[in-house]
Amino acid sequence: MKASWTEESLDGGACRVPVRLYRGDALAKAPPLVMHLHGGSFLGGSLATGQAIATLLAEAGAVVVSADYSCANEHPFPRALQLSYEVLGRVCGQRAKWADKKSALFVAGEEAGGNLAAGLALMCRDQHFGALQGQILLSPMLDPFMATGSFRKAEAKPTGCQWSDGWNRYLGFGANACHPYAAPAYCARLAGVAPALIVTAEDDPMRDESLKYARRLNDAGVIVRESVLSIPTGWPATYSRCPAVQPGWGETVRSQFVEFFQETGALPH
């Protein structure tokens, strides 16, 4: 399935949020509707840098609303999360416009966008936002302390690297590192959140925190599908490369999306 996109904007409360709408050329009657959030370590990122993952989601059969939350990046937590929650509410309320009134709703994101997607899933549970059917997290930034073995292997340092700088900007001050929406790795109560697909790779600095989060979700009774790619991926840097040439991991990740949509009942088998 091929996918194309158009650009629009949505009301995010504090500002208008640019979005790209991705659609495949052969959709199911009620395709899954995904709000996607790009990476960028809370330092940057754009709709363009999120194109590769948004395209794969659309090729997997979803209608994708990829939202650019970067207007909130200059402000500490919870601005970007609040903005994303506002946009999610708009997407949910207009699902008949974007896809179909019976479409299942998902959140998805890579790296910093994965942090926001995980935080949104927690917010949706706590605020009784009953429409969310799944969360898709790729290399999610979940643990601001960056002390895992996969981070040490990547030689990511607590200062002078993009993730530490991004965490410092996003958290604003140390107390926010304990907030479950800001640092989902330290959320004490995970039961009741939407089913999750968590994708990482052997060469991914966020591998260990991703897998630990998957285990904790599973222990809390949440349906979890996890995948660790063994091939070299260059994640998270390669997420932002132009998808004109499909990456070596593209087909595998797209298949993971399809299977997750099927398992959650959003697409027929």
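(ticket continues) Second input and output from the same batch:
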Amino acid sequence: MRFIITKNIIENVIASMQPFLEKKDASAITSHIYLEIANTKLILKATDYEIGLESHIDSINEIEEGKATVNGSNLLGIIKRLKNEDIIFETTGNNLVIKQNKSIFKLPMYDASEYPNMLKDENLNKLDISTLNFINSIRKITPAVDNNNPKFELNGALIDVKNDKINFVATDTRRLAISHLQNIANNESQFIIPKKAIIEIQKLFIDEASISYDETNLVIQNSNSKFFTKLINGKFPDYERIIPSNLKYSLSLPKSQLVESIKLVTSLFSNIKISFTSNAIIFESLDEDSESQTQIDINLNIEENFYLAVNAKYLLDFLSMTNNENVTVGFNESNLPFYLEDEKFFTIVMPIVLEK
């Protein structure tokens, strides 16, 4: 195998493949990136069996067909140090040789024929949805996906395809985040995407791509890349029973003033109390060792005073994902879960219970 390629082209692709490599065991073939020259293209693959990426590059010169594997981390380390000029790659014996000007590097290879097969995209169900809408919807709920919950299904986002809409759902048990889109042509189904995959999807795809799935895999691909992830096998909690059927108060509030006030009182401590009166919203830190307070003067037209006590991170996560100048805050009474909404995105937050 041999080819010549410009540094910045291959560096970008090799860098994008780092999250898909086995990091704990450098002796595993899955710590390697697979390279193959076929049909005048360079094909690169990386996978740790749970998640994977395949990319194609056309802009290569002086090619000889063949295939190789090389440790992905070491390869990136070398490429980063080279000049932004052409690089020669060729196989010699059991090594991949990398040359630029008078610099030469040799990296050991494994048997490329033993590299794991990437997922075949046959017999998959197509998810008929705009890639941009898919990514925007999943981005909004990402902060609410749990990290190391013993209930594995909570370490991912549920895609719940209903007859009339598609719900994107995540919960860390302290909050429930839901973004939804209209369902035009998809059959009803449910699947859970792991958090790692959710994060990588947002990095990889900004243009239109096809999205497909079956009971165990999700595949997203465009003309240059194919991404796959294993899905989480489990039953997501019945999230719809948590959604309130009615709210005593539903207030439209200025987002920028909320963000400014929350950040002011959380400079030392993240738990806050927000009190609502007929003509003001008062923000107070719940830190016992110091005192922080500010307020927004605003006519709320409510009949009785309420308060919300909460970890401010949940509020700021929600507000950072909203698009409009105003957001809706809904509640029934103090010490009960409350509701945050911006168009097709809402979050229900469990409060910190205070003694009345």
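Agent notes: The chain has three domains: 2-114, 125-241, 245-349. Helices lie at 7-16, 72-81, 131-141, 195-204, 255-265, 312-320. Closing as not reproducible unless the customer responds.
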